[in-house]
Each structure stands twice: as C-alpha cells, then as structure tokens.
Write a structure and sequence with these properties.
Keywords: ATP-binding, Calcium, Kinase, Lipoprotein, Membrane, Metal-binding, Myristate, Nucleotide-binding, Phosphoprotein, Repeat, Serine/threonine-protein kinase, Transferase. The protein has 594 residues and is of the alpha+beta class. It has 25 helices and 13 strands. The structure holds adenosine-5'-triphosphate and calcium ion (4 copies).
Length: 594
C-alpha cells in the first residue's frame, strides 16, 4: 500500500509544491545548463566536447531537494501548466477510467512541447512559414473516414487509398492542424515528427509510414492503420494485470522497437501505454510504437534538457534536465510495473507530488500481487527503474535479461558499447589495467550479453578492429542515425585502428562499472577484481597522479590519500573501487550515492 508514501516522501515539506501558475516563463535555458551549474565544485576534464560521465550525477540537481525544475525550456518553448491533475485513485485502472470519462483529452496529458496557446516562441509578430513542402493533393488520393483517435496535437482518422501503390487499402491519417503551430519551434517539431516516422518506418514494431501531405490548414500523415487499439485500452480491459508470459510478450516488442530507435540516436520521450497500438484485435497482434511528436535526436556526447513527457512516466534525470536515451528505459520500467501489478509505481495527487515521488520514492515491490510475481521479473523491473540512469539497463541489455531472454526475437547492437569502448581506448594505461582486472570478475549473466554484442560486431581472427565497429553501425544506419550524428563516435575511436580487441579485452572495455555496482554481488565482484589488480595491474601511484587520472584538483588530495596504501604506495581496496567508479569529490565526501 501507499506506493509513494515511503519514508523518503514523508520527510518532504509540503510547501515545495510547484506553483501551478508559473506558466510560460520566457526563461531561456541552454544545452549545458546542467553541466555549468554543477561544475562549480567539480574540476572539468580537459577541453573535449564530451560530457564527462563522472561529473554528472542525477542527484546533483541545481535545484533544492524535492523541487521540480522551473519551466525553463529550450529557447522559446513554453511549459504549459497545469496539465490535467492526476486523479487521487492509486490503481491505474480507476484513475485512468475516471479520466477517460471526464476530460476532453482522455489521457494523461503530456508535459507538452507546447503547440497550442497564443504567442510565438520566435518573437511576437513574426510571420511563420507553415509551408512544409509536402505534396498538396491529399484529397485526390485518399478518402477520409471516421475518427479513430485523438491526442493533444491532432486527431487520427481512418482513410482509404484511392490510387497509387496501396490503392484500396485502409490507412490511418494523423491530421495536425496548422492553427496549432504557433511558433517556429512547434513547426520544427512537426517536421521532425514526420522525418522520424519516415526514417524509422522499416522496423517491425514501428508504425509503417506511407505518405505525408499538407494543405493550407493541416498536415496529413498517412500511415499503417493499427486496428487493435491502444495498449492502454487493453490494460484497462483486463483489469490492469498481465500474467508474466503476456507481459513479457508485450515488453519484448516495446524493447525491440526502443533498442532500434536508440541505436539510431533517437529518444522517444513519451513512451506510455497510449502510444503503443496493436495491429489487430487478434490474440497474436503485433505491437507498434507511435507518436514521435516529442522525440528528439540524442547525440552521443550531449545531453538533452527540455522537460517533456508524461508525468507518471517521466524519468528523474529528465526533471533534473540532463538526460538521454535512458529516460525512455525508465518509462518502459513504469510500463512494466503497471503491466505486472496493475498499479502505478509513482503516484501523487498533484503533478508536483508525482515528481517528488519519481525523484525520491522507491516503488513498492512488497504488497500484493508482488509476492506472487517471480523474483526474476521483479529484478527486471528494478533494473529499469533505477534512479541513477547509469545503472539502468539499456534496451538491448533488457532484451538479454534472463526474464526475457527466451522470448527474444534476436539481439540488437547496443550503442552504449560504442561509448564504453571509446572511453576505454582513450583511457590511461592505469585505468585500462583496473578495468581489465574488473573484467575477470564479471558475473556469468553479464558475460552472456557481452558475448552477444561481441558476435554482433563480427570479430575477425577472434578480435575486433575499428572497421568491425564501422561496418556494424553502417549495417543498421537509417537517415535518423545520420542526423543524430552517432557515427561521429567512430572518429574518436581511431586509436583502435592499430589495435585489436580480443573478447577478454572487449569485456574490459565494454563493462559498465555503474551497472555492476548496482548488482547485489558488487562487493564480491570488486573483491575478486581487486585481487586480480593486485597480482597483475597495480603499481605505486602518487596522490597527484591519481588526482590527474580522475580529473580532480588539488582540493581532492586529502581525500585521495586514504585510497593509497602507505606501505607500498599502491591503491588499497577502497581506492581501487573508487577509482573504478570515477567518483567525484563531492559525491564521495558529502553526497553518498543512492
Ligand atoms: N496508425 C494508427 N492507427 C490507428 N490509430 C492511430 C494511429 N495513430 C494514432 N492513432 C490514434 O490516435 C491517437 C492520437 O495519435 P497520436 O498519439 O499520434 O496524437 P498526438 O496528438 O500526438 O497525441 P498526444 O496527445 O499523446 O501527444 C492515438 O492515441 C491512437 O489512438
Ligand atoms: Ca492520446
Ligand atoms: Ca500520443
Ligand atoms: Ca504526441
Ligand atoms: Ca531539442
């Protein structure tokens, strides 16, 4: 009971509610907001455009504890408050049913990329060019029928193709009104939504894109008609609880779409049961993801900062305004939780209460029906709902999790491997030695995933060269990947041109310390790793050198002293663990993680 009334929450004062009238501040934020505000006490790493992962903790918000961010947005984007207040019922069933019955928008309102409401983000009086360059003859090609769905930004109708390749076929047409495009940014959003639908259309769990048109009043997006309705309706129809086998079948489809668009460098930002549709009413209907209206490109070396999404599904780091693809994984964690137990993991009477809950409360895994749900399923959900985005599984990893592994339609390349390998090959020899020792202690389960990724990269003579990484990425590239500039990472992997990674070293390179640390066996793993390090990787290191290794300044020296053994000048166990973790002075001394 009381899913969100955890101990954490009850310590929060009630006066930090987000005032619902802080709407539409003209406040400007910029891409680096989070970094700049948290960098004051943390020395920055040498001038690279990369985000230093060690400097970013989801717990280092520039905001006071419990306070959700101000509505500062990407330039010109307004934050619309309040969105429909959540109903006080806890089980998703009742809450959703009520909302559907009453509100004109039957669903959880998204935290919108605002497109309605007066004013223009590009400056008052500016004339907006609402010409998209799309074809104009929609009416000549399609016959419009009844409405099949409605959202905040448009409505979707049934239609029939009158001519062309799909003549006679029924389709869905999302009609987006130009009158709602009141800023250059909202026009850009529609342009991007169409571009993404088109680029990602090939995947079996993406809705198929056919065509796009416009006239003076509307944009018409023609796509595959999904006649089975929304996943939300199906959740409501069966009382909100799925047997594990069925939950798995749904999640595998959600994750395989997500792994695909994440590999393209696209973050959806609005994953929720309303945005998944079944192709038919049949038992074996395929699930498709729709609505890329809030989606964006996620460059590998940048973090997004606009607070968008739907309150119940929004990840903590989104509220802290520094996030990337992991935010979608959190939303899938929320969906998983709902599928399995029928309740929301994070709940509150008001939007700010929901946000506090998301930031601080631990979801309830103790009350009914959780005792009857398998421990492995619970483990799965927990590894998606980790508040630290670095400790969360990726979509590709989630597909390889033992709970889902058997259902698996085939593993997908995980871009996070590229990021980790890139860091590894650019790291100091000392750090690489530390990681090599760690790789010898990786649990069997995690090795299964790494082996699969190794094979997907198609090693030659038992090892991976730079061109294997290039070829693999190219194989899966769509226009979206080009736009998100993920392949740029290959330039930073140049040191690999003269090297070959065998499986052992690949493991050292692509193991995520953060994820291992989230495991119950971490202590044990670190102990074994340290033994290896002692016998083959360690050497004496000075405090200064260690500080440099960790991109820390002289103010860290006193702390680092405790990590080095006076006996032989080598790292002690604590030092080794901290070094692996890459902890910042701030989070080690005053803000313990978790
Ligand atoms: N291809 C489709 N086939 C059948 N129904 C669809 C299709 N696309 C959309 N719909 C229906 O129309 C609804 C609204 O579509 P969509 O989510 O794309 O619009 P939106 O205005 O962006 O919504 P939101 O308010 O969630 O942002 C969907 O929830 C769904 O019920
Ligand atoms: Ca909707
Ligand atoms: Ca939608
Ligand atoms: Ca949308
Ligand atoms: Ca953006």
């Amino acid at each position: 009971m009381g899913h969100c009334y955890s101990r954490n929450i009850s310590t929060v004062d009630d006066d930090d509610e987000i005032p619902s009238a802080t709407a539409q501040l003209p406040h400007r934020s910029h891409q680096n907001h989070h970094q700049t505000s948290s960098s004051s006490s943390i020395p920055q790493s040498p001038a690279t455009s990369e985000v230093n992962p060690y400097n970013i903790s989801p717990f280092q918000s520039p905001l006071p504890a419990g306070v959700a961010p101000s509505p500062a947005r990407t330039p010109g984007r307004k934050f619309k408050w309040p969105f429909p207040p959540p109903s006080p019922a806890k089980p998703i069933m009742a809450a959703l049913r009520r909302r559907r019955g009453t509100a004109p928008h039957p669903r959880d309102g998204p935290i919108p990329e605002d497109s309605e409401a007066g004013g223009s983000g590009g400056g008052i009086g500016e004339r907006l060019d609402k010409n998209f360059g799309f074809a104009k003859n929609f009416e000549g090609k399609y016959e419009l029928g009844r409405e099949v769905g409605r959202g905040h930004f448009g409505h979707t109708c049934w239609a029939k193709a009158k001519k062309g390749k799909i003549k006679g076929q029924t389709v869905a047409v999302k009609i987006i009104s130009k009158s709602k495009m009141t800023s250059a940014l909202s026009i850009e959003d529609v342009r991007r939504e169409v571009k993404l639908l088109k680029a990602l259309s090939g995947h079996s769990h993406m809705v198929k894109f056919y065509d796009v048109f416009e006239d003076s009043d509307n944009v018409f997006v023609v796509m595959e008609l999904c006649e089975g309705g929304e996943l939300l309706d199906s959740i409501l129809a069966r009382g909100g609880r799925y047997p594990e086998a069925e939950a798995k079948r749904i999640l595998v489809q959600i994750l395989s779409a997500t792994a695909f668009f994440h590999l393209q460098g696209v973050v959806h930002r609005d994953l929720k049961p309303e945005n998944f549709l079944f192709t038919s009413k049949n038992e074996d209907a395929v699930l498709k993801v729709i609505d890329f209206g809030l989606s964006d490109y996620a460059r590998f070396d940048q973090r997004l900062n606009d607070v968008v999404g739907s309150a119940y599904y929004v990840a903590p780091e989104v509220l802290h305004r520094s996030y990337s693809t992991e935010a979608d994984i959190w939303s899938i964690g929320v969906i998983s939780y709902i599928l399995l137990c029928g309740s929301r993991p994070f709940y509150g009477r008001t939007e700010s209460a929901i946000f506090r809950c998301v930031l601080r409360a631990n979801p309830n895994f103790d009350d009914l029906p959780w005792p009857s749900i398998s421990p492995i399923a619970k483990d799965f959900v927990k590894r998606l709902l980790n508040k630290d985005h670095r400790k969360r599984m990726t979509a590709a990893q989630a597909l390889a999790h033992p709970w889902l592994r058997d259902e698996n339609p085939g593993l997908l390349l995980d871009f996070s491997i590229y990021k980790l390998v890139k860091s590894y090959i650019r790291a100091s020899p000392f750090r690489r030695a530390a990681l090599k020792s760690l790789s010898k202690a990786i649990p069997e389960e995690e090795l299964v995933f790494l082996k699969a990724q190794f094979m997907l990269l198609e090693p030659e003579d038992g090892g991976l060269h730079l061109h294997n990484f290039t070829t693999a990425l190219t194989r899966y590239a769509t226009d979206a990947m080009i736009e998100s500039r993920l392949p740029d990472i290959l330039n930073m992997m140049q040191p690999l041109a003269h090297k070959k990674l065998d499986f052992e070293e690949f493991c050292a390179a692509s193991v995520s310390v953060y994820q291992l640390e989230a495991l119950e066996e971490w202590e044990q793993i670190a102990t074994v790793a340290f033994e290896h390090f002692e016998s083959e990787g360690s050497r004496a290191i000075s405090v200064q050198e260690l500080a440099e290794e960790m991109s820390l300044g002289p103010n860290a020296y006193p702390l680092l002293k405790d990590w080095i053994r006076s006996l032989d000048g080598k790292l002690n166990f604590l030092g080794y663990a901290k070094f692996l973790h890459g902890v910042t002075v701030r989070s080690s001394s005053s803000r313990p993680m978790r």
